[in-house]
Specification:
The chain is mostly helical. It has one domain. Helices cover 82% and strands 0% of the residues. The protein has eight helices and no strands. α7 crosses α8.
Length: 215
Amino acid sequence: MGVKFGEVLVEGRPQLTEFYRQSVAVIGFVFIPLGFFICALGKPILALYGGAKYAADGQLLSAFGMTLIAVAFWTLLREAALRLVSARHLATQYLVTVAITLTAYGLLIPLLGVTGVPVAMTLGFIIGCIPLARILFDQCALVPPLDVLRSPGLFGVLLFAALYPLSFIDNVVASLGLGGTIAVLMCLAWLTWCGPMEVKSIIRVTFRKFLPGRA
């Protein structure tokens, strides 16, 4: 995706603006639901891979769900800036991210224990996005298209609300199996209704292939 920014820049400003918007939308539609899925089912996921003795630390993995979302957008902005503006601005992003993360470690770990680590990292990555978002706006007139994140953000909250109660089921396989099934069905319904046109087309083609009489 990063290389593509440089290629689109040659095509013109409107194409660059549209590609930036599409890139933010893709990251949002993929990583926001994934992050909330991990937040909701962190306990059974950790229990499945690490054993029941680690289930109590499931909140740690759940907190990393938000970190995943923050890292995805942080990386997108870094890749865009690497191709569109001076590389020296990347150093600012790193410095801000590290400074905020280390400061948050000192403040949050005494309060939250080990869970403070992913929370601090999330804050660091989120705030670390600000310098590059500003540079891309100032030098390339790229406005952060926050409106495209409204739908995946709302869906992420609804997905969390639907799946979180399943984390209290003692049977890990049942919890994850049911949770995965619900998540897939919800995602298909959401993407069919609100997803990008390309995604809607893929879903329709898939349904026509497997359910020709109902598509």
